[in-house]
Amino acid sequence: MRRSSSPMPTQRSFFQKSTLRSLTRKTSSLHTKTLFSSAANPNSSYGIRALQTLETSTILNPSSVDNPSQSMSLSDSFLTEKILLNLKQGKPNSLRDFLFRSNSFVVVEVLYRCRDNLQLGQRFIDLIESNWPNFKHSQQSFSAMIHILVRSRRLPDAQAVILRMVRKSGVSRVQIVESLILTYRNCGSNPLVFDLLVRTYVQARKLREGCEAFRVLKSKGVCVSINACNSLLGGLVKVGWVDYAWEIYQEVVRSGIQMNVYTLNIMVNALCKDHKIENTKSFLSDMEEKGVSPDIVTYNTLINAYCRQGFLEEAFELMGSMSGKGLKPCLFTYNAIINGLCKKGKYLRAKGVLNEMLKIGLSPDTATYNILLGECCRNDNMMDAERIFDEMSCQGVVPDLVSFGALIGLFSKNGRLDQALEYFRDMKNAGLAPDNVIYTILIGGYCRNGVMSEALKMRDEMLEQGCILDVVTYNTILNGLCKEKMLSEADELFAEMIERGVFPDFCTFTTLISGYCKDGNMNKAVTLFEMMIQRNIKPDVVTYNTLIDGFCKGGGMEKGNELWNDMISRRIYPNHISYGILINGYCNMGCVSEALKLWDEMVEKGFEATVITCNSLIKGYCRTGNAVKADEFLSIMLLKGIAPDGITYNTLINGSIQEENMDRAFAIINKMENSGLLPDAITYNVILNGFSRQGRMQEAELTLSKMIERGVNPDRSTYTSLINGYVTQNNLKEAFRVHDEMLQRGFVPDDKF
């Protein structure tokens, strides 16, 4: 409520004095010659230069900090006195009424008047925050609150206000710094405020703004402490802004701020992160001249960097030099060395370093053993992995989720699911709760081994234990279901995934598309492909290859070509596999001329032909009854340095037999054996089938005998060809003899002879 327009004489006198006192205080704060005389060391860099800069900038541009020179109205002065009186008398109800009528000028004035009574100032700030959280603060009112809170050692609360201040839209770093400097003396503050400003920018991950604030402070002659500088430097290095860190470091050096070993370690880390480890020697020498010597952290940082970059001998040499500096390698040092050795595949030497640790009485920790376990898993060394795990327990080192996860993953990957489950149970008995990663590893093991019922049971347990299925878990199960052709279950799981708000990724769609293509359900595969595009998930050449292959295998060459053109229009260019798929598709349909055009295009584009593509063309020639051309293509293969494989020769042999040219077939077998390839079950079956079709059953039986003699086991196809041969000759006695032998060997005939 506003006061009367004609106050009593005594009141008028009071108001005039109060206003004059307020104006005097404001003028004093702008023109004083020692900004920090009451709180800072006179020999510090906080002083005259800061004031001179502030005087110039503030007087010439008063609007930069909320018009600090604007005087308070008489009503504001009255309000200030009333608030102070009620604060001292402890009347919160009356205060609330006054607070709702106050503004930022009143807040600043009240806090200035509380500089000698911090409890009063804190009470006022708390009342504003609890009763009027949406109060419209100015930069000055924020600044005054920060000063009082810092002086009261309420640093988290001060930081919270700084955060609000820096997040206020349209406020520059210059305005923030000037506002803090302007209110500094009247709040009787101390330089910790400026440290806190820089630290807050770092903790809020506003590093660019933090650097700007640091430079503005420096331009005002305000140098923050080395701890705040280290916070800024450390933040920059952590996010990889190494060049920016060096710029700030040079400014710290020029400011004359005394650096410490933390500064040294941050900048050594910067050099290591930037792969400039060779520059560390000159940097350390320069720092020693400044009176800052390396410590154990410095050596560990360098040793770790050498190990990460594969310079193991340099790491060992540096570790050996530590004693000369009065330092001893610690657990971190040895862990870095062991990790470096394992990354280079030097597992035995890493084990030697572990033994050395134990000899000198340095106890390894969980991380030490996890490094070695990880290396055993990479090499599928199950025996050593179990030994390391047992040694870990003997040394009294408690395994963690990583330790158990490594073993569970190792045994799952190698199909030893019983042992994986045993470690899984041990982990739970040790009081460790399996997480998403552990469950997904086990589910993956079941899926790889085709045990989908157990994989789904593990999924159910995972949900019961409160673990949330993420996209990786869903993709793992979907992959297993697609491999087992359980596509209806895969479709249900995909629907569940979307319903639960888990976004399908590239892997999800590619897995499902591949599953449906292999099943011949191209309509569903295309629907998923279109959904993938709609969701802005970019397909790659593998996705297109999968779809094109699906259509080509089903004889849909036209659709395959459409996808080929669509792929190129999206700037996804075919690879050698893409060409191989289309060539194979044309060859399956007997369109060898089209296949050869693609072959020429492929070679022209610089793709190396593979034995798979060559085999497709040979198959194409054979299918069109041109085994001679196929044999000629074999010569082209050999000239290009492409070694034929068993499929090449078996296709050629089959082509010759289809043309009833057994002599050429045996000539190809000789070529095959001369190239170092032995005939396999398919080779013998092709020959045996050829003889059987021609009614040359004696030669067919001799082929079977030769096959067994050479250690190649006959299969269902072998016996079926013989039975069909005898049936064609109406020799049912021999047909049933072969039928019985087939049953004895465990093969079930289809009885369609």
What does this structure look like?
With about 750 residues, this protein is mainly alpha-helical. The chain is about 70% helix and about 0% strand. The protein has 41 helices and no strands. Helix 7 crosses helix 9. The longest helix is centred in the first third of the chain and has 23 residues, at about 10-30. The radius of gyration is 41 Å and the shape is elongated. Residues about 1-70 have low confidence and may be disordered.
Tell me the number of helical segments per DSSP (H or I, 4 or more residues long). Answer: 41
Q: What portion of residues belong to β-strands?
A: under 5%
> Distance N terminus to C terminus?
110 Å
Quaternary state of this entry equals: single chain
The computed structural class is mainly alpha
Shape: elongated
- The overall average pLDDT, rounded, is 86
Radius of gyration: 41 Å
* Residue windows where pLDDT falls under 50 for at least 5 positions: 1-70
> Tell me about the biggest sheet?
none
Percent range of helical residues:
over 70%
Report the count of strand segments: 0
